[in-house]
Automatic annotation (TrEMBL):
Protein name: Alpha/beta hydrolase
Gene Ontology MF terms in the entry: hydrolase activity
UniProt-listed PANTHER family: AB HYDROLASE SUPERFAMILY PROTEIN C4A8.06C, KYNURENINE FORMAMIDASE
Short name of one Pfam family: BD-FAE
BD-FAE-like domain residues: 25-220
First and last residue of the signal peptide: none
Alphabetically ordered keywords of this record: Hydrolase
InterPro entries documented for this protein: AB_hydrolase_fold (IPR029058), BD-FAE-like_dom (IPR049492), GDXG_lipolytic_enzyme (IPR050300)
């Protein structure tokens, strides 16, 4: 087996915008320079107020070993930013990738977007609402979207249901989405199905949060009803965090599923 030092290379802390640490990205690339590789841009989770790109080194290492260029991004977090600013910065990161990734061995015409938890929400949001890439000044370049246990596909429904229940997460979420119910709907990919023009692959943990188990099948049904391409797989025995930490191991089956997805295979 080839060692990691000759299979992949890491390029750390590249600035995609003028925002300090909140606007940096890391690139993990195969050392094979004979061709351009598919690109996966990853948006981390953390309830929109925590998390950082550096945590996900294992995704970069494993995807690069499997022939992908992997880009992990930072973005501004609450309470310093709300969902719109997060979305605009994520779109700017994708723009930077589109314009620069070729020099790092990535194919700018084969960019895929992946997100876990709140990162899944942001991935779906910027892919489906045209205002985010419009403000970045580019046409949406995303060829497909991978959502790993996404939280917040219908933040409107979640907040309306939970706001008066003593839910410990609601105060933090209100800092991200405000108390304006119009913003809750604007922030919900569930109501932007018509904006989908590329395939989706979704994974959900069997033991994840009830809201995720409730919303993802509805999202899938709405996509299918609108003749959008989508798949949803329930991963047995996995809780919310386990849905991403299982990918520490390069033999995890999600890598093969995702690689087939980027090749257009079922």
């Amino acid at each position: 087996m080839l060692s990691s030092c000759i299979c992949s290379k890491k390029i750390k802390d590249l600035a995609y915008a003028d925002g300090g640490g909140k606007n940096l990205l890391d690139i993990y690339r195969p050392n094979n320079k004979d061709k351009l590789h598919d690109v996966i841009v990853f948006i981390h989770g953390g309830s929109w107020d925590t998390g950082k790109k550096d945590t996900y080194w294992f995704l970069g290492r494993n995807f690069a070993r499997k022939g992908k260029v992997f880009v992990a991004i930072n973005y501004p977090l609450a309470p310093d930013a709300q969902y719109q600013e997060m979305g605009y910065d994520c779109a700017n990161a994708v723009k930077w990738v589109k314009e620069n990734i070729k020099q790092y061995g990535g194919n700018p015409d084969k960019i895929f977007l992946m997100g876990h938890s709140a990162g899944g929400h942001l991935a779906a949001l910027i892919n489906q609402d045209p205002k985010y890439f419009a403000k970045a000044g580019i046409k949406n370049p995303i060829k497909g979207v991978v959502l790993d246990d996404p939280f917040g596909l219908d933040i409107d429904q979640y907040l309306k249901t939970q706001i008066n229940t003593g839910d410990k997460y609601v105060p933090g979420f209100l800092k991200v989405f405000s108390t304006d119910e119009k913003a809750w709907k604007d922030a919900s990919p569930m109501y932007k199905i018509d904006g989908i023009h590329n395939p989706y692959m979704m994974f959900v943990g069997e033991k994840t949060f009830p809201a995720i188990k409730q919303q993802t099948p509805i999202f899938e049904e709405k996509m299918k009803a609108a003749n959008k391409q989508v798949s949803l797989e329930v991963i047995k025995g996995k809780k919310h965090i386990g849905m991403i930490t299982q990918m520490i191991f390069g033999c995890n089956k999600l890598y093969d599923r995702i690689n087939k997805f980027t090749r257009g295979e079922k």
